[in-house]
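Input record (one chain):
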Amino acid sequence: MPGAKISIFTRADLDMKTYINKVLLPYTAASVILFVSAAVFARLFGLSGPLVVLMYSIPAILLIYAAVYPYVTADSKKISINSRIPYFITYFAVLSTSEMGRSDLIKVLSHDPKLGAIATELKKVYVIVSKLHRALPEAFRFLARRTPSKVFADFLDRLAYSLDSGVDLKDYLFQEQKTVMDDYETFYEGALYDLDVFKEIYESIIISVVFMASFIIIGPLITGQDIGRLALYTLAIVLAAEVGVFFVIKFRMPDDPIWAEGRGLVTDRDRKLRRARNYSLLGIVIMVLLYYAVISKRFPLPQPFVVALIFSPLYYLGWLAAKEEASIMRKDENFAAFIRSLSSSLAASGTSLLLVLKYLSAHDFGSLTEDIKALYRRLALRVDRERAWDFFIAGTGSWLVGIFSEIFREAIRMGAEPDYVGLVISRNFERLVRLRRKRQQSMSSFIGIIYGLTAAFAFSLAASFQVAASINTLFGQLKVPTEYIGDIIHVIPPSGMQFVMYVMLTIMIIHSLLSAVAIKTADGGHMMVSLRYFVILLWIFAVSMYVGQVMMERMMGLGSASKLLLPILP
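The corresponding structure, as predicted from the sequence alone:
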């Protein structure tokens, strides 16, 4: 493949001098400073082996990141291009029916921010054509050899060949729609398949973390090591695993957000979420005061239940955001029919967009009907047509509706054929909605796996803690001189067990929060919805910890020896 000989720096749009000055040298200098500092601290304070390794790993990670930075940048650029290519091919096709010249068409596309990295790539084509006066097919081939996206490169090669052959651009792009959308569907489904594979990896990671955490909790009874330090190692391992899972999901899933970007407009949806946010935060304060003033004095709740109870008011904000998100997705289901009716009516009647909208506003388009009526009323005022469309997009709250509405508006403004525009937009929009349905189905199983692993993680953690606490109490009560059992069993002081308990509560919060954020990162939804999953995971963790401790306590028959069942403040 010719493109294989192109430098990774070219594919990543990264200049060698910029890379050396802004990435390689600063990260290398920081790594050397941190390495020397770690060596000095290790020698002065006599740090333990694992802690020294952890300190040395930080500069090593910085060096590795500096080395792979061009590859990470190129991969991110590839994902950005692949994620935006449906909007690009739709916009390109509908604008091809206008009276605009080809170079002007490329100029318009290269300055459109919603195309992301594709717009940056097309700027190179425009410079080659307008400044260097090269042929458009030659410029497309030049870019195809240098873009990191195979889907985009194949499209450019086919387009260059068709232009050389004298094929009409409009007819070619109409036929090319299916090919490009098929390639995008393959990319999208490949990402979903990666998510399915990652589910198995995620299970293995959590199981490994559970095993290590269980051993670290029980190990000090045998080895005599500092249980506080080992508990911090456990926290670091859990944090590293959870953050790693989050970043893998973030950088492997396609960029397909559900919610529209803010346009400086405040909608009823925004006001609802702001009120819900204030109510939830106020609810947390009230719950804390209620617990310490009333509940703690009458009911000795287990500590995990106290944590879950305090954060429970956040569920309301997450629930309301999830409700709004479901409403947005229902509007997506109706948009294709609306745009198809709008464009066909424009082409058939030959009247203005305002009159057609007046006619369509009397019809039922499901949850989109009120937004269509509001759009007609704002356009009828004849104050600012673009702002009227911005209010329509903000009212629907949908990323897909927003970007395809802008494509329709710009295409009609530039004189494109309405029936062609409506056909292309509605067809591509429906394919994207179908892909989103597949994504939601895949996410349902992923959420179920997270729930199950959270329960198993909490159960194992609490059971191990109860075993350690019971054995510690048993040997602490033996009337045997220390010199006889000192090398066999090591008694952990109560302060050490209490510290482990607080570390476990921290793990509970970190795991629940990062898992909830990973869920919404994977499905492209709003981060406020993750608060609902956060609260659910907290309660799953709390209940599983309680069950794990009680079951292990009864199996060992040693009585309650830990502080897990005591409230935070006695």
